[in-house]
Amino acid sequence: MKRIKLCSADELDIVKTFECGQCFRWNADDRGVYHGVASGNYAELETKDGLVYITTDADESFWRDYFDLGTDYAEISSAFTGEYLETCRQFGCGIRILRQEPWEALCSFIISQCNNISRIKGIVEKLCRCFGDELKAGDVVCYGFPSAERLADLTPEELAPLRAGYRAEYIITAAKAVSDGSLDLEALKRMNCRDAVKELRKLKGIGEKVANCVVLFGLSHMEAFPVDVWMKRALKENFPEGFDPESLGAYAGLAQQYIFYYARSNGK
What we know:
alpha+beta; two-stranded antiparallel sheet; 13 helices; 7 strands
């Protein structure tokens, strides 16, 4: 594996980005180095002297796209107005919206329903170990995310070791839809955001919040604005009654992440 200077820590704060609830396969060791797998590519990321370094076998171009480094978030977020939103922006500065593989995002956010992040990560990791392909990167052995085709052939009983509960049925239903082509995730990328959400909601077990997470984090619809209990509270306490997140524009999803990260961190 090679070690590459990826970008500045101002552009990408790896702690905020990996801990803001948008992904579940990145974990830090006791040195603060994050280890993870994306689209079958293993990497280690660390911050040193204001710079982000990545150790990987994959091309740098893959990771620059994955971290959306071609987009100027500082310029985009300067359009967010209001004292509270500015506080959230400053607190969350360095968060980037990852360009995750669509099927992985869909399956992961099905698992996320009524779940905490630690447990979601545990279930996702078991899913990969049990049904994903083994990957080797140097001395590291890890596992890729299992394909929809692989999971479509399973029964809820075969997923029981994951302890995913009722979500097992939803995972299999979504896997079958993706594998047989009745749900075309690439086509959803080309749709407008609202239509993509509507298509996802046709699947059993996919509600408004999960659908919006999938279109934001897996389909790169940056205007999507997922609302969970944290966001409902933040919107109620800090925005006018009847506030429409669509007013935040084409990058409302970035504003959502700033608000979500600030709300979950209690401003600390």
